Amino acid sequence: MMILKCKMCGGNIEITGESHGVCDSCGCEVTLPKLDDDRRAEMYNRGNHFRSRGEFDKAYSAYEHIIAEDGQDAEAHWCLALCRYGIEYVKDPRSGEYKPTCSRVSFEPFQEDRDYLEALNYSEGRTRELYQREAAKIAKIQECYLEISRKEQPYDVFICFKATEENGERTQGSIIAQDIYEQLTEKGLKVFFSRITLEDKLSEEYEPYIFAALHSARVMLVVATKPEHLTSRWVQNEWSRYLAMMDKDKNKSIIPVFSGMSPYDFPPEIPMVQGQDMGKVGAMQDLVRGVLKLTGKGTANNRQPELYATKENILKRIAQALEDEAYQECYNLAEQLLNADAENGWAYYMILAANGIKNIWEVGYKGLSLEENRYFRRAYQYGTEELKQELELGLQKNRGILKNLNEYRNIAGDGYYLYNQMKNRYPKELQKYWSMFQQYYKYGMKRSEEKYEEFVKTGKRIAITTLILAGTVLVWAILMITGYGTGGEEDMFLTIICGFAFCTILAYPLLAIDLLRNYSGYRAMKQYGYYRQELRTYKKQVINPLEEFLTGEVNNYYGPLISNGSLVELRGVTECIKEMMEQQWS
Length: 586
What we know:
- The protein has helices at residues 38-52, 56-69, 74-84, 114-121, 125-150, 172-186, 194-197, 207-216, 227-230, 233-248, 283-295, 304-323, 327-340, 345-353, 374-382, 385-413, 417-425, 427-446, 449-481, 488-517, 519-558, 573-585; strands spanning 3-5, 12-14, 20-22, 29-31, 87-91, 98-102, 157-160, 191-192, 219-224, 253-258, 276-277.
- It is an alpha/beta fold.
- Strands 8-7-9-10-11 form a five-stranded parallel beta sheet, sandwiched between helices. A two-stranded antiparallel ribbon has the order 1-2.
- The longest helix is centred in the last third of the chain and has 40 residues, at 519-558.
């Protein structure tokens, strides 16, 4: 008997072969993997254990091993999506219900996550409904978090550190981190230091504010005085997410800051090129100077008044270049403006527009997300309120385009889409067509062309035999009427004619038996031909018009969403029925 740990409460669930079930401990209806051995169950329990502890990277690795063995495991894909967004389930003390919490917010909507879509693709029925239900809850939380994070002002620096020891005392690293915070804020930098930044948000979720700071900060300082501090849950969650953001944004930097430990105790993922040992003399001054340089605020800009005097003119020239469709000139001017003012949101916005499209959200027609575009993120980070409103409108439209595009791709890839639509909307017509197809296949399987041909040939033989017999009787009758047959030779001739007629009569029973023996084949062929003609007529008069209507309905709705794209031809109802019928008769 295989036991699986509930991914919500951690209780035991006995595996019975079903893809969903109810946990005896928390009473939640949960999705279950299809397990065939204890080793696979242990891999799932290992992943669920790490995820419940917030060690999402370790959990992700465990689920990836399952996918490597079986790429069509829906539950493994679902768990990968949960890890990517840092989803844990926490019991609500008031309702007793286990609700999802998000520790890794992302601009990419959960319901468009590649592993979530794979989970839907490889599941069906109630299991699929459960995935969709939980995804809707997570998407709602995600949208709420993003709404909060969008209102946050951008940060220059994010300080990552462990606040307390296991015994509850404050860590030495947190003291060093606060000293750094005070030094940097004195220099005019906006610094995220959770001990102070989040102190007025005790009754709220921290994640939206952490995400906003991670996303906007140009520099992260990872402060540690013990190696184990670096692998604690929240510390690792922050620096690992920042490293992932660095892969997409080369302007971000991470600086390890340590004291009383070796730099080699840092995880290998964190680059030590700019590591700062706070035990050295003058380390604080070196660190502050390096951070100011990386954030672009290290020197006074005496040209600032001149910049603001010319900035409007440059923006006007960019707008003129866009009107003239001189996109390269537009791009060059925007870059020129950014070289002088690296935090000009309108300049980043103009670079977006320089891609040769009328509206920024239209990149969705190419399957591209605005949220993944670095210029969009910078435009939002440094934009005015007016620009942010325009960007948010564009983002909503872009999401709508991508959602509809994904829906269309799912429809185009669903071989039974038209069949299911017709089954739901025109059940009587489809049922009649299905019944006719059954009869058609029934007689098609029974028909025997050899028996049919033998039946036809036997019929021809009977006809020929009848003609011969009729001719013989006619000759005999004529001879008798004319009085022929009074001599010996004439009697012999009449005897031969009578014998020939008698033999012909004897052939009739044999031919009749042969005819009856092949009659079933003849009847099956006649019925087969009848239903084939009926099917053709009904398909032409009823099914084809309905197919054209449903196909046109899909293409008319989704067609405009695909810029100059060719719509995939949907699979016909007849083809689907034929395939199902062949499986049934096989």
